[in-house]
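If your schedule permits, I should be very grateful for your opinion on a structural question. What I wish to show you is a protein chain and, alongside it, a tokenised description of its three-dimensional fold. Would you kindly read the sequence against the tokens and tell me how you understand this chain to fold? Here, with my thanks, is the record as I have it:

===
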Amino acid sequence: MSWQAINRFSPRSAFNGIADQVPEALPPRPGVVAGPLDLRVLELLTARLCHELIGPIAAINNGVELLADEPVLARGDADPDFVHDAIALVGDSASRAASRLQFYRFAYGYGQGRSMVGSPPDELASRFFEKTRIACDYGESIRALPLDWQRLACNLLLTGAEALSRGGSLVLAVAPDGLDLEATGEFAALPPETSAALSLATPVAALTSRSVQAYFTGLLAEALGCRLVRSEELRRLRLTAVALAGQAAAEPGRSPAFPEPAAGDIVIGVSTGSRST
């Protein structure tokens, strides 16, 4: 692999468009996180990404070690079933590692105004949740949105997945009141730590590798001029990104007039320009 190819997956390129794209002296643009991210947020996102990749990469290493330790390989009379199983382990693990890396490259690294590289977001999401206990329905209406809104959608998927510790389903769609994620499953609920981070109420110093994903999702919603509304029922969690009046439209050329949250809904994030530090 060339150094150019390696650089594509460096920490700097992974977060290109977030920390480096918008100088502090310039006014924020719709869809771009205003100002550089705090170093601790970048550290925690990097740690989370590494955690997601450790499992499949370790499995690749185990498969290679199994093949290397098989004494009959050198004689050419290895057990075909053994070789097949080892190769299948390596291939499946490599596929899972690639799917996770490609999904996170878009979710964390896509910069507003840039062209999409590789598969579209819906395919990335489908492969990311493939062979997991969570089924993902990336609605047709979401696929028509601008890429910066789809980036928010992908991060909502990651946040919603944290509410489904025992598996379930995630459904993304454009609802009348905004960009909507519905998580359904046993004990579907966000921990208090995650809810606080999603509303950007958690001080950066208090963030952890478990809560940083929700915090980053809240930052993206804020950059798009959204407030996040949460509603919970038995076995069901709903997160909706509602565009504030006068902010960027959810669809090209359309300025939606989303209604106020319904009674019982909890507004967990509002783009006010202030947050805990």
Remarks:
- The two ends are 40 Å apart (CA to CA).
- The chain has one domain: 3-26+33-269.
- The first strand starts at residue 134 and ends at 138.
- Confidence is low (pLDDT under 50) at residues 1-32, 248-267, 269-274.
